[in-house]
Amino acid sequence: MYDSFARLCADEKEQNLALWELIRAEDCAENGEEPSDSWLEMKHMYDAMKEEDRDYDPRRLSNSGLVGDEAGRMHTYRMAGETICGPFMSLVMERALKIADSNACMRRIVASPTAGSCGVVPAVLLSIQDARHIPDERMIQALYVAGGIGGIIASRATLAGAEGGCQAEVGAASAMAAGALVSLLGGSAQQTANAAALALKNLLGLACDPVAGLVEVPCVKRNVVGAVNAISAADMTMAGIASRIPPDEVIDAMRTIGKRMDPGIRETGTGGLAGTPTAVRIREQIRAAKQEK
Fold first, then answer.
1. Treating both helix axes as pointing N-terminal to C-terminal, what angle do 5-15 and 247-260 enclose, rounded to 10 degrees?
2. 118-142, pLDDT tens digit by residue?
């Protein structure tokens, strides 16, 4: 697993290999896996992402009843042609909601990199594939890039909300999606790293404050923020806008911020939004309902 963007970018120049090939080779060497087997596993994950999107049911709510139909509402609004952000971005938003809703409703998802942030990467990749008619082979290559970015973040910092807040979950997912998108658009390793840095910078310090301790509120809607943020970071990168702080230093800053976060906003469900009067009432209502059963 790569532990820095600096080494990844250097290898791209020295070895004259595509970014996804470097990441796959590193992963295979670490796990003792054949490249063909690795490819099949990655294909399986991308196919599962497609299934998440296709099999969404807006009638199915989470056990708490807090979420489940958000994507259905977004779909109705999008189809009415009234969205401010246009057809592509609104589709990305809908898909992020679909997959995050599915997680809350106990459907099968791909943790990318976590269950709480599972809607970001697929929303971006599935939507750009539809918009640009990109073959599955290239999408799987992009998924390797997303995984490589996640690996660097995990190595230098964390992907756990309990350790680093939601910046480590939705923030990391947004960085992964942004980098993967730039790679699909023909960007270099340096541009891919830049997009990841821009996306992550925008979400530094994001609290993990799930209401009633459930991965539902505000988690589902934050997947939308992560997906939209990833696209803006990719577009800025392709326009030639650079992160003034190097990507590895951005990740290191995320690690430092996570360590300084109060435990109440690191997935404990006690601080931030989870500590508001309304959230406390919701938590007590859910507890009472469980006791009645």
1. 160
2. 999 999 999 999 999 999 999 999 9
In the Cβ-directed half-sphere of 282, how many Cα atoms lie within 13 Å? 21
Give the C-alpha separation, 258 to 212, whole Å. Answer: 21
Distance CA 183, CA 234 (A): 9
Residue 131 identity (one-letter amino acid):
A
**Mean per-residue pLDDT for 247-256?**
98
Surface-to-core class of residue 111, CB atoms within 10 Å of its CB (0-12 exposed, 13-18 middle, 19+ buried): middle
Residue 292 has pLDDT above 90, yes or no: no
Which of 176, 192, 185, 183 shows the shortest CA–CA distance to 230? 176
188: helix, strand or coil:
coil
Element of type H or E holding 133: none
Number of domains in the chain: 1
Structural domain including 215 reads: 5-292
CA-CA distance, 147 to 189, in Å (whole number)?
Answer: 14
Q: Is the pLDDT of residue 107 over 90?
A: yes
* CB atoms inside a 10 Å sphere around CB 107: 16
Residue 81's pLDDT is 96
Residue among 217, 213, 195 at smallest CA distance from 290:
213
Answer for the pair 168, 265: CB distance below 8 angstroms, yes or no.
Answer: no
* Sequence-distant contacts of 105-111: CB under 8 A, at least 24 apart: 105/57, 105/60, 105/61, 105/62, 105/67, 105/68, 106/62, 106/63, 107/52, 107/55, 107/56, 107/60, 108/48, 108/51, 108/52, 109/48, 109/52, 110/45, 110/48, 110/49, 110/52
Rounded to an integer, the average pLDDT of 77-81 is 97
What span, in angstroms and rounded, lies between the C-alpha atoms of 5 and 252? 12
* Pairwise CA distance, residues 168 & 54, whole Å: 28
